[in-house]
């Protein structure tokens, strides 16, 4: 599944989460930190991975989750979310084109209501 990561979405996340670190919102601050553009929040990426999965699996809910971040996800990039079921868990890889892995993680799901 592909998702375009927009500056507007990152601004909304920053306002909601109260994580207003400059590298997420300010191009000059991101450049000073060595990035070409602003950077998406790690927790935004993790939450988006969960949300996209649950959209396709509405009868499931997530019971545990872990994610490791490998590379920054620059704003105005298309992120690719890939899911695989293995040993009863869902493995997720978040990447961008050319196979650069941004994050990887695992979560457990349960069928039905809480």
TrEMBL record:
UniProt superkingdom: Bacteria
Domain called MaoC-like: residue spans: 3-86
InterPro entries registered for this protein in UniProt: HotDog_dom_sf, MaoC-like_dom, UPF0336/Enoyl-CoA_hydratase
Protein name: MaoC like domain-containing protein
């Amino acid at each position: 599944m592909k998702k375009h990561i927009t500056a507007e979405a990152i601004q909304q996340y920053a306002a909601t989460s109260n994580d207003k670190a400059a590298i997420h919102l300010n191009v000059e601050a991101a450049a000073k930190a060595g990035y070409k553009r602003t950077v998406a929040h790690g927790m935004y990426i993790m939450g988006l991975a969960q949300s996209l999965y649950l959209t396709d699996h509405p009868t499931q809910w997530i019971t545990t989750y872990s994610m490791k971040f490998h590379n920054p996800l620059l704003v105005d990039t298309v992120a690719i979310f890939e899911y695989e079921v293995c040993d009863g868990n869902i493995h997720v890889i978040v990447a961008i084109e050319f196979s650069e892995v941004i994050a990887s993680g695992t979560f457990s799901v349960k069928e039905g209501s809480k």
